[in-house]
Amino acid sequence: MRSSDEKVVAVIMVGGPTKGTRFRPLSLNIPKPLFPLAGQPMVHHPISACKRIPNLAQIYLVGFYEEREFALYVSSISNELKVPVRYLKEEKPHGSAGGLYNFRDLIMEDNPSHVFLLNCDVCCSFPLPEMLEAHKRYGGMGTILVIKVSAESASEFGELVADPITNELLHYTEKPETFVSDRINCGVYVFTPDIFTAIQGVSSQRKDRANLRRMSSFDALQSAARNPPTDFVRLDQDILTPLAGKKQLYTYETMDFWEQIKTPGMSLKCSALYLAQFRFTSPNLLAHGDGTNSATIIGDVYIHPSAKVHPSAKIGPNVSISANARIGAGVRLISCIILDGVEIMENAVVTNAIVGWKSLIGRWSRVQAGGHYNAKLGITILGEAVAVEDEVVVTNSIVLPHKTLNVSVQEEILL
Amino acid sequence: MKALILVGGFGTRLRPLTLSVPKPLVEFGNKPMILHQIEALKAVGVNEVVLAINYQPEVMLNFLKEFEAKLGIKIICSQETEPLGTAGPLALARDKLIDGSGEPFFVLNSDVISEYPFQEMIEFHKGHGGEASIMVTKVDEPSKYGVVVMEESTGQVEKFVEKPKLFVGNKINAGIYLLNPSVLDHIELRPTSIEKEVFPKIAAEKKLYAMVLPGFWMDIGQPRDYITGLRLYLDSLRKKSSTKLATGSHIVGNVLVHETAKIGEGCLIGPDVAIGPGCVVESGVRLSRCTVMRGVRIKKHACISSSIIGWHSTVGQWARVENMTILGEDVHVCDEIYSNGGVVLPHKEIKSSILKPEIVM
């Protein structure tokens, strides 16, 4: 163990119930960060990546969900990883930088030398130790994980320009209307504690400006609508954009996968990416079988130990089956997430779908979609406790919790 | 006694099945459509059947040769060189129908499936003493058809009203006639309609009588009606000779399974299913309201409803075939594929799902 000033702390921003509405209907039942990808809660993937950081002292989850929603998970993961994981509830959203700043005293409690900041809703290989090494070489205040994407899709994200030799961040702009760069911000950062001073600077500038504006009632109205509260500080627009080109921020480019998990459809794609990563990181989590004693497994499949899968079923690729699910004889599952307590009866087929908690899929029924992860109805989603009766076909549809389907539906949202 | 069956042309309405086989030879309830009629005619003493046909008579005759011997009935063709409508073919076959006995002869539309109560029709014909008898059947929506207006007690036909806008009656022409040879004197050798030109004249002379067809009736000239017709036919078979229908814990409702077909474990078959000779239905398969033609293989866990699977086709594991999917001859639906109303021409392989009804060329 090196000296105490070498300690590292990781902060994972998990958001809150008013965020992530695009993740409905799945987020009606569970905080989005706890939704399972590859059989593990979404937030589990960045957390277990943090475990690879040398001298990791503490992981904080920061968000505005109720504490009780994370209590069980936080205690079990602390035990499992032997690293303290703690949930910190914001009273209101402060923005990603504001949220970090809000808890600066706790985060800095053990005088860490570096602070990682991760967004929970990104899916990547989180090359955190490599980022930290690079960050130390650069000698700046912060290092941002970046990835090269297609020019067409770049504008959905924060686009940035980096010096090809020094990797210094030269320019940063959030979701630009015109093309700036095909390098984008992955939402994963490592900072030295100086970041808190930078956030404080933005916050106090805001206060000054707010005081100046208190001149006419018209201006006050305008500013209330346009300007966020003074303690609301966004990392991208308020920190990255002004500090670009000032030799304080650097970039580390990943050649691995990266996706943003905004919609249920994307969660299915990200589940596939994490399952594929398990081949290298946790091969013990992947299922095997050839149909003799256990089900035939094709490609990457996760099956929770408490789930029951009939040996005549054929599962995969890209299937995750959660706790206590029951998969009957002759069932075929392809590219799907089967949540806790689901029962799938004989000869049913599920493909390109997410089947909600305790749902029931009848004999010879079929739950399917075209598999376009980004399309509105590209993946069929069944909410909690949905029943699909025998022989019914559900295609490209979203079904809200507690519905019973006794006739086939196609391209429908069933409230 | 003689009979004329109006076979007609290419059977385009029943494509893609009729791209492989002339329409009268397409199996219905595991028997070529025309054999249902020929067998029923033979049963009431018809010994000579004339097929009025304008397409591929060789294929038909080759096929029917074996039945000529088996049933002891003479089958001949009267080939139209141009379409002659519904009455013209009678004039064309005049010499083949008239043998000097003066006996009436049957005329049947080949698309029509029913219980063929020919004996009752003969008695009805003798009873009224007119020149022609036609079968009529009751329908729910008479405005879609030609309605026969008749005197209810005697059956004497007053007039024909084509697609009436106002209700004039609910009995329509069922396409089954028993005619005296003298009727042929009313028909010229040209394209002409029996309903519009011939019968109205006979009706005007009060020599046309209509008999209400007992039992079911269906024009099975197109796939949807073919599937409905199978249900009606199997219902009728259940009443008349239920021993022909399959039984067992895996059977629901009326199901016809050819003796050479094999059914695997854990299947659920029915209602209203016909499985043809040499078919293999593997384990865990679900079939309902469908016809599976000769030599088809349905692989494990597949599910088929409201569809027709053409000769020697295969349906892959966990495939779902439904909603008026019609597979032509030798079509192969790959594993896990979904077909919602796909109409597939012969000799195709279906590798991607058909989400909405469409024709696969």
Structure, explained:
The complex is a heterodimer of chains A (415) and B (361). Chain A has helices at 44-50, 67-81, 95-102, 104-107, 128-138, 194-213, 217-226, 235-243, 264-281; strands at residues 8-15, 36-37, 40-41, 56-63, 85-89, 114-119, 122-124, 142-148, 158-162, 169-174, 183-191, 249-253, 258-260, 296-297, 301-303, 308-309, 314-315, 319-321, 326-327, 332-338, 343-344, 349-355, 360-361, 366-368, 380-382, 387-388, 393-395, 398-399, 404-405, 409-410, 413-414. With 415 residues, chain A is α/β, with parallel strands linked by helices. In chain A, the strands form 5 sheets. In chain A, strands 14, 15, 17, 18, 20, 22, 24, 25, 27, 28, 30 and 31 form a 12-stranded parallel β-sheet that branches. Chain A is elongated. The mean pLDDT of chain A is 90. Chain B has 361 residues and is α/β, with parallel strands linked by helices. In chain B, 21% of the residues lie in helices and 30% in strands. Chain B has helices at residues 33-43, 57-71, 88-92, 94-97, 118-128, 194-204, 223-240, and strands spanning 2-8, 48-53, 74-79, 105-109, 112-114, 132-138, 146-150, 157-162, 171-179, 208-212, 217-219, 255-257, 262-263, 268-269, 273-275, 280-281, 286-292, 297-298, 303-309, 314-315, 320-322, 326-327, 332-333, 338-340, 342-344, 349-350, 358-360. In chain B, strands 12, 14, 15, 17, 19, 21, 22, 24, 25 and 27 form a 10-stranded parallel β-sheet that branches. Chain B has a 7-stranded mixed β-sheet with strand order 3-2-1-4-9-6-10. Chain B has a 6-stranded parallel β-sheet with strand order 13-16-18-20-23-26, with no helix packed on it. In chain B, strand 1 (2-8), helix 1 (33-43) and strand 2 (48-53) form a beta-alpha-beta unit. The model of chain B has no long low-confidence stretch (mean pLDDT 90). At the A-B interface, loops of A face loops of B. Chain A: GO terms for molecular function: nucleotidyltransferase activity. Chain A: Belongs to the transferase hexapeptide repeat family. Chain A: Residues 297-412 form the Mannose-1-phosphate guanyltransferase C-terminal domain.
